[in-house]
Amino acid sequence: MEQIWGEQEAVRWLDQILQRRRDGTLLVLLTPGPDGILWGIGRHPGSKEYEWWGLSHPREVPRPSTAGIGEWIHLQEDISRDTPSSITWVPPSHPERVVRGKGIFTYPLGPVHGDVSESLRYDLAVMGDEIVHLTLKHGYKRRHITTLCRGKTVPQALELIERMTATSSFAHQWAFMMAVENAQGKIVDEGTKIYRSVALEMERLASHLGDLALLASSTGLPVAQMDYLHLKEQILRWNYKLFGDRYLRGALVKNALNQVADEASASIIAVGEQAQAITDSLFHTPSFLDRLVGAGTIPEQTVQFIAPVGPVGRASGLKVDVRSLWDYGVYDEISFAIPSSDKRDAYARFLVKSREITASVNIIRRLLPVAPRHSHVSTVFEEGPSQGPGIGMVEAPRGMLAYALWLDGSGEIIRHVAVATPSARNWYVVPPAMANGNILQDFPIIDASFLLSVAGWDQ
Predict the structure, then answer these.
(1) 390 has which bridge partners?
(2) Which of 193, 227, 199, 195 shows the shortest CA–CA distance to 213?
(3) What is the DSSP string of 75-142?
(4) Fewer CB atoms < 10 Å away: N or C end of the chain?
(5) Cα distance between residue 134 and residue 130, in whole Å
(6) CA 180, CA 329: separation in Å to the nearest integer?
(7) pTM of the model
(8) Does residue 135 contact residue 431 with C-beta atoms inside 8 Å?
(9) What is the DSSP letter of 153?
(10) Are 378 and 155 in contact (CB under 8 A)?
């Protein structure tokens, strides 16, 4: 087998990435493009501007680093999998980390789980009740969606993209289409931006209500669980009435609310008020708080290393919200709260998600009356095609979601598409958080406090 890089070349490539990390750049997405250049998008601290940069490679295929750079870890697998078959990447040998010692027992869980849980294997190394190590094994149901998109038209690819993960279907549609519009040099009108913003906040409401329901269930509170699920069902029904699908598939193409939008506002506001009442009752339930406070605390060095995004990141002191950092939708025209905490534990994640429900309801309340109705035709303004890849980024329910894509000369056929999902980044904080003074009985609570997407990781 041919070794792509010599060690000297590998170090040179890694040094360029590390320099950006030393400068404080937050890398969002890294992908080898069809032009033989390694493309990345990153943001400097304190700046709202994201920059694309390309790193040329003498053999046109980047060799992933072996240094375990936090937010690039999962991309090593993607790059090696997408490498043209004519060139072989020889991965470094990494023996599986196994915790050994007197009294250590490995408790395997999965990959098959009950209910709606996705295929993921947890290998929990415990000593007595204490969790001392966790290994996650994924990839059991890869669907290769981004690979299947190549050679397809934009509408055909969109049908695949919206099935990436059900809890973030619209977020994926919007980020993908934003990248397409960026590559084509098009800007959509205000009405379209409002419509998309309403749909994304409705998706966030349903996702967060479902997350809090499972967290209540993990602590043995089925009444609170059912109350949250009842509210989630109301939002899903309004999704169907407003957009034509409970999980918003096909909603981006529809581009206009049904006439029942005039009746929706009061009901959605009521959902927010009822959710707040349930949350307030949990804040006064000692058996609930005792299980969350201090459980699943992410070590501070892990937060700095991985830089988690979304509610997980904001519950760890990282106030990163794409809605306030990236110019999309109408978020720059309205004020909204961005809840955060620096506690890094399961309670902080519960707190952030519960407050984000209220923030989303307030956004919907303000935008719904002015959202386009029935037969809105999107007006497109030509800006000139992008010189590099088209990029799109949104704040999905679980955090920063980014797309990069290249179109062919006609501007209608997908040449290459890459995606960086929030779960693909955030899963790497779960093992150190789990093996941080917790016991086996804490596992379901900590897992529910993250509730990340396996589909978003496997893609």
Answers:
(1) 405
(2) 227
(3) HHHHHHHHS-TTS---PPP-PPP---STTEEEEEE-SS-STT--S-EEEEEEETTEEEEEEEE--TT-
(4) N
(5) 11
(6) 15
(7) 0.84
(8) yes
(9) B
(10) no
Question: What pLDDT, in 10s, does the model give residues 22-35?
Answer: 555 556 665 656 65
Q: What is the DSSP string of 366-427?
A: HHGGGS-BSSPPPPEEE----SS-EEEEEEETTEEEEEEEEE-TTSSBEEEEEEE-HHHHHG
Which residues have a Cβ under 8 Å from the Cβ of 420 and sit 6 or more positions away? 28, 29, 30, 75, 400, 401, 402
Give pLDDT tens digits for 260-318. Answer: 777 888 999 999 999 999 999 999 999 999 999 999 999 998 888 788 889 999 999 98
3 state SS of 185: coil
Token pair 């078959």 is at which residue?
85
Give residues with Cβ within 8 angstroms of 202, minimum separation 6. Answer: 170, 235, 238, 239, 242, 243, 248, 268, 360, 364
Q: Which residues of 275-313 are buried (b: 16+ CB within 10 A; e: fewer)?
A: beebbeebeeeeebeebbebbbbbeeebbebbbbbbbbb
pLDDT of amino acid 33: 61
How far are the Cα atoms of 129, 135, 340, 424, 427 from residue 298, in angstroms, in the given order? 19, 16, 15, 17, 12
Q: What is d(CA 25, CA 40) in angstroms, rounded to the nearest whole number?
A: 11
Q: How far apart are CA 451 and CA 434, in angstroms?
A: 13
Residues paired with 136 in a beta bridge: 122
Count other Cβ atoms within 10 Å, centred on residue 114.
Answer: 5
* Residue 55 pLDDT level (bands cut at 50, 70, 90): very low
Least confident range of 344-353, 367-376, 445-454: 367-376
Please name the residue that has the structure tokens 């025209």: 333
Residues 133-174 have pLDDT tens digits of 898 888 888 888 888 898 999 999 999 999 998 889 999 999
Share of residues in the chain with pLDDT > 90 (%): 39
pLDDT tens-digit readout, 95-147: 556 777 788 888 888 788 877 778 889 988 999 899 998 988 888 888 888 88
Separation of alpha carbons 331 and 336, rounded Å = 8
Q: Which two tokens stand for residue 379?
A: 């007006």
- For the chain, how many residues are written? 459
Q: For the residues 386-394, what does the mean pLDDT come to?
A: 76
Separation between Cα atoms, residue 404 and residue 30, nearest integer Å: 9
pLDDT beyond 70 at 382: no
